[in-house]
Design a protein that fits this description.
homodimer, alpha/beta, Urease, subunit C, domain 1, nine-stranded mixed sheet, five-stranded parallel sheet
């Protein structure tokens, strides 16, 4: 069978590469790769299986969400505007304890649908019932970096069972779905996993040759508690446990000292910045300017839609570009170009996806098209600025992942939207009734 | 001629009243007013000229944008991510100096189109060439509180001409377009108008019985300069000049002392909070929690799309709900219910619009419908939370102002979108060439 060849022409392409180049012309896709990006197509038009007119559209790499708990869409709007502990202890945890595999399947389906419709082509998911999540990723055509997030505050036999489950999941699914699924090992957080248990995850990650993902220093309170309990702040604590001997992605990293930032830089630990969630939960404002200045790779994540409350990565890019200016008083902090790369190229690098996150010949064909024939994209001044400061997820018209179209003209081709909304609503009603 | 009667049924209505009630059932519109809101329609179905099935839609009051310079859409993305003075002096001002009436007409047309498409039904506009702005408001069906913003750093004869122009505009247009247009007097800011000139605006506002709108305390630098030049901070300065003897709306109010907040409360001065613009220009974070605690009415504005960079009021509601939590560390600060009211009821009250900003029988029929049959509006937990934390302007399906439909199914019925985009693009090219 010959490889399918598609040509997009008359379009504008934002590459999100280091130079943030803008290319006017065409992009050719062959199989799962971008074969060409430039002014004139490499082959005569008639040699392409499909030729798409990209007029009025702006193409950019698919967005990369580096921290999510997709199934928690079931808890969107369930107990907002409450103190953190009340929200967690009285709202989130009792409901999550009731989640079945079916709930996770439909919760994740709705979230993946929402991600696709708002232009996300790769996401990190840390949750339970991960086989269901992987199944949704397989069906939907999206790219997933998946990990069973383990809370270790339980008896040794339960700890052991969970660890083995995490190992089994990571081994079974790594590289599946045409390589769209990769996996990580995820002790949930320093405050939810005893030190020796974290060390066992580090060992497993070494054995499987996988990265580690964990929550770290999200709230001031958890940092204080770490110091009280272990005599160390979280970064030194995780360093001591050997976590950073593995490639590591930490979520949040809001409360960090200069010394901790230097340690993260030294080990090339990547930080998933979750501005929407950090603001909504009043966790604070991460030291993103300092992290980036120190050379730490910072990407963006939505966290779950229970604390965001949507999965629109355009909002996270915009928040990242806005809040660090406002809080630092520096109007050139986190410019649009940086925010765009945080949501694309830096995201892909942060989760070890090769050939993803920028538009270039040879890269994976993971990209989206925005409908820019709308008032808020005029005039045609700075298109990257428009993407970050003016666009929203609803502007996404088409989505392609790994060379396959998963959305065209805002219709998801891989998932049954009506059925998902119906089943999801039923699962939510069931959770309330249980 | 009998008054037209419309019935919307099978719908959900968010009233945005003091109780933030949610009504399931129907709303009847007669002429320019809401005639009924409740479970069962007051008249038999066949007595209505039009019956609309509101299933899958969420109705709420139209959003109220209390600070904008609509024509500046022509400068969206023109010189972002620059230091404030470079942006103003090298980018904004030289281009604005070239603006003609035609530019303002098409710039405002695009902005009003964008506002309608993102659910704004009333807006404050402060700019030059205001007859053009009023003309766009008249044609578009939107509600406008309009004012000629005057910079008084000019010779006495020019000052006089501008003042007379502002007076003439305010007198001519107040109450026009079926009452959809009202006017204010607007000395641009304490730092751009000499004290005696501001006093003349106060006198004119008294003579015309109109409110005053001005920029105030947007940046720390301008507050310092005010103290250096006049020996007073801006609030005391404006108080001394008699501004607050008129109903007053100030934009920004970022840098305020406790004493200044108390003064604003004493005079019932209303503050238009512009979170997006304040963050992007690195002006800082307004003391919204303290302002509201002191009893100051706080509404929301986008400012211009040169500093935002769009006119989507859903973003402003979301930012208002997020940033004050994140910066204060209090997760219950500015809850969704408050943010919704800031964008609707408090907005209308802040600009002296009676019977606007809440859904209730007897009120003006200014409302919008969101398409909530989309993933990010599931599950049906807290609809107000969904509006503030999850929705965006693109979710708006229908817009009704003063009892007339200005948008249905995302098609603007009053303005020619294609022509506006075309003419706007040409005006921008012309500005660059001039």
């Amino acid at each position: 069978m010959s490889i399918s060849k598609t040509l997009i022409r008359n379009a504008i392409f934002v590459t999100a590469d280091a130079e943030n180049s803008i290319v006017r012309g065409c992009m050719a896709i062959e199989g799962d790769r971008i074969a060409f990006l430039g002014e004139t197509p490499p082959h005569p038009i008639e040699q392409y299986d499909r030729v798409i007119d990209g007029s009025g559209k702006l193409y950019l790499p698919g967005l990369v969400n580096t921290h999510c708990h997709a199934a928690m869409s079931l808890l969107r709007g369930y107990g907002d505007d409450l103190a953190l502990q009340i929200w967690l202890e009285q709202k989130m945890w009792p409901m999550e304890a009731k989640f079945t595999s079916e709930d996770v399947y439909w919760g994740t389906s709705l979230s993946v649908l929402e991600m696709i419709k708002s232009g996300t082509t790769s996401f990190v998911d840390m949750y339970d019932h991960m086989d269901q999540v992987a199944e949704v990723v397989r069906q939907s055509g999206i790219r997933g970096v998946l990990t069973r997030g383990v809370i270790g505050l339980c008896p040794p036999d339960v700890q052991e069972r969970k660890l083995q489950e995490a190992i089994r999941f990571a081994r079974d699914w790594h590289g599946q779905a045409d390589g769209r699924i990769t996996t990580m090992m995820a002790p949930h957080a320093p405050y939810t996993c005893p030190p020796d248990y974290i060390e066992r995850f580090v060992q497993a990650a070494h054995d499987l040759n996988l990265p580690i993902h964990t929550h770290m220093s999200e709230t001031a309170r958890e940092v204080e508690a770490n110091v009280e309990q272990y005599g160390l702040r979280p970064v030194a604590h995780l360093e001591k446990l050997g976590v950073f001997t593995r490639p590591t992605l930490v979520a949040h990293g809001v409360h960090l000292t200069d010394e901790e930032i230097a340690t993260l830089a030294k080990y090339d630990v990547r930080v998933s910045h979750n501005p929407g969630s950090n603001l909504k939960l009043a966790s604070g404002v991460a030291r993103v300017i300092d992290l980036m200045r120190a050379g730490v790779k910072v990407s963006l994540g939505t966290d779950s839609s229970a604390s965001n409350n949507n999965l629109d990565m355009f909002e996270e890019m915009q928040l990242a570009a806005l809040i660090h200016k406002g809080v630092s008083g520096d109007p050139v902090a986190v410019p649009a170009r940086t925010a765009l790369r945080m949501g694309t190229a830096a995201g892909a690098e942060s989760i070890w996806l090769d050939g993803v996150g920028t538009l270039a010949a040879g890269n994976k064909a993971d990209f989206i098209a925005l409908d820019i024939d709308q008032p808020h994209f005029f005039p045609r001044t700075d298109l990257i600025s428009h993407i970050v400061y003016s666009a929203g997820g609803q502007d996404v018209a088409d989505v392609c992942v790994n060379g396959s179209w998963v959305m065209e003209n805002r219709v998801c081709l891989t998932l049954d939207e009506e059925r998902i909304k119906r089943e999801f609503a039923a699962r939510f009603e069931g959770l309330l009734a249980r």
